[in-house]
Amino acid sequence: MSQSNTCCCGCGGQEPFAALAPVLEEYGGVPGSLITILQKAQDLYGYLSEEVIRHIAQATGTQPAKVYGVATFYTQFRLKPVGKHLILLCKGTACHVNGADAVEEAITEELGIRDGETTGDGQFTLNNVACLGCCSLAPVMMVRTGDGEETYGNLTRDRVKAILRDIQAEEGAKA
Q: Model's pTM, two decimal places?
């Protein structure tokens, strides 16, 4: 664990994990609540850092290895920060047969990242997922940001590139 004056929550070391305290108060003593605690921690911090895992372990009286084991077993948990825009690309059967691989290639061409990677500027992360539950829109991707999420369906290579360029242009306009 890093001994620097900063932690993943951006508090500057003043009150590390203060945002997590109410979650630990509510669920810390409840048997079988580790997944809920991890979900809420990830919602707060964007991912589960080593520091967060150790803090949860200490606060719940659980071995850090057990907390880490749960965090690595379930694919919903992230141990690395993700980009501002998290692209969830459906790779389910309907999307696969309707061109999800071509969509992934277009994302890779446009952003220079593959599944599980984040762009150098921290703007985009690509994650392939088993199913988004939008089979009638296949192939489909969802883009999550701090402001919410947008689902894009009936994708083609050109449409994906246009969507990504529009998102980048919006970001440029905000800057």
A: 0.72
